[in-house]
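Why predict the complex rather than its parts? Because the way molecules touch one another can change local conformation, and only a joint prediction can capture that. The input here totals 666 residues.
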Amino acid sequence: MIRFEKRLKPSRATTILTPFVAVLLTMIAGGIMFAALGKDPVEAIRIIFWDPLFDSNFADYSRPQLLVKAGPLILIAIGLSVGFRAGIWNIGAEGQYIMGAIFGAAAALAVYPAESALIFPAMVVAGALGGWLWAMIPAILRVKFRTNEILVSLMLVYVAESILASVAQGVLKNPDGYGFPGSRNLQQYPSAFNEEVFANSGMHWGVITAFIAVIFTYIMMTRHIRGFEVRLMGEAPKAAQFAGVSTTRLVVFCLGFAGAMAGLAGMFEVSGPAGQITIDFNTGYGFTAIIVAFLGRLNPIGILLAGLLMALTYIGGELAQLMLGLPGASIQLFQGMLLLFLLATDIFTNYRLRFGGAH
Amino acid sequence: MNLLGIDPVLLIASLMVSATPILLAAIGETVVEKSGVLNLGVEGMMIVGAVVGFITAVNTENPLLGFVTAAIAGALLSTIFATLVLYFKSNQVATGLGLTLVGLGVSALLGKPYEGIKSPTIKAFEIPLLSDIPVLGPMLFSHDLMVYISILIVALVWYTLKYTRVGLVLRAVGENHDAAHALGYKVIRIRFMAIMFGGGCAGLGGAYISLARVPQWTEGMTTGAGWIALAIVVFASWRPLRTLVGAYLFGGITVLQLNLQAAGVAIPVEYLSMSPFLITIAVLVIISARGNQGAPASLGRLFHASS
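Output of the joint prediction:
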């Protein structure tokens, strides 16, 4: 008989190993799926994971795209990971991302066409504020009324999408846009344009912010009292209470931090790669970032790597759509499978397999 | 009697239709949560039910068969969740979310060739005699079969949980899994069945959207219905009969909102379409401010039999 036996301590080796096993299992399952769709599985996997980086025809375009896509994923996932560690479940990052973009773009469009070096920093602050405010709704409801933050934060995604549709056709609509919905293009507004820092690298200010967030969070989680409180709350809530950790403060901090990070990601996206507020501005980064956070084991360095890998599946997926005519949804499915495989292999960090009966 | 061009008889009749998918999903999730498991994958199971039911109905021209396969598909998808959560002891919140993501992906993939087709719909089933009553007849007793089946399922769940041995065991497992295990009940097996029941109900609910409410397939067509069903469970304080009240209240808001859109009231469409979500949040706040009475004590907690 095979059964699981609890380990005395989580295994470090398996903690690091399981994401790789999960990726491998996803590739195998994905390959079977591609074969079922009538495509050559080996070729499909190669196009998704190899060609964007190393094929001479695509690499020049794809490599910068890697950072463009990884930036917001890492930024959002870093924010979420802190809350997840404490057992605070913000799954509405998509909404906070949208609100950050709206606030950031609104700050720029309010002063259009003035040029000043202060505009971009003001947008950064506005973007973070937008996401933070949107996350404060579930935070305050949880703290004041013990309302479930999972459901509230998720519902607010739909509300944010409605607000996005409203402003894209209303207050933020481009007055010179011939009546089409969508705001002015910020890429053509020098003071507000989130330009690449190094040409053709894909490295815009959002990517740099993501890297800073990784370092900041790493230090906070390992060296700072707040990081200790977060970990304590997640691993031993009762001990945290006895130690005088304030649940209220921690909920507000975790949701606010995640909201601000998601808001920043939205702001950098709208002022850079996307350029404008449109009805379908959001593309699901807020949800994919949840996978990134788990794939990175809620560890800042892990999230950095996971974000890059997930960005690769986005770019490779687009390439596979183009080259093989793979449906776009298959990549979505691929990412979902990755999360499930990861959660399945997770058991080996806390349990070990035993053969034979109990002793 | 007309208010803003809205006919109350039609309003109540259509709110029952609009509430049915949420009601089905919510009653299934109530059973799951009563057994102590939180499955956030409702949205994913609903959308898979919607697409599978639609495909079956289009190919066999038999909508009832569509509902049957949708329930099976929902239940099958939920076994992934059940296996991960119960045997691999994965985090319930994350696994449920993963299930939703996978469900959305699978449904988009399967449904692609079926976009823009109309499905055969189920005919209205007029209950003899009752449907002839003036006003009440067309309002309550002239719906399609699934509306009555959904109410029947609610009644059955209520009766089972309250008055039968099976219900008692299920509740014991949800309240204190260690005690239930010590008494010799198969915690894992009972929860597995509860999760599959929830999956089947969610599948039915999804199919009701694609086969009766919209009769069409569009990607992501459940638009948050699964999440609202989860909120209804909390609203109902985990009581089956209250889910009926909750779902119908919510259905009423949705229908009213759509009617106001159609009537061209001077409120922008975006604000009307976000109103169901805002109202759900408001209701959640009111309920939780009173304290979450009735939440199963072992809800979301991990069970590992050490011996």
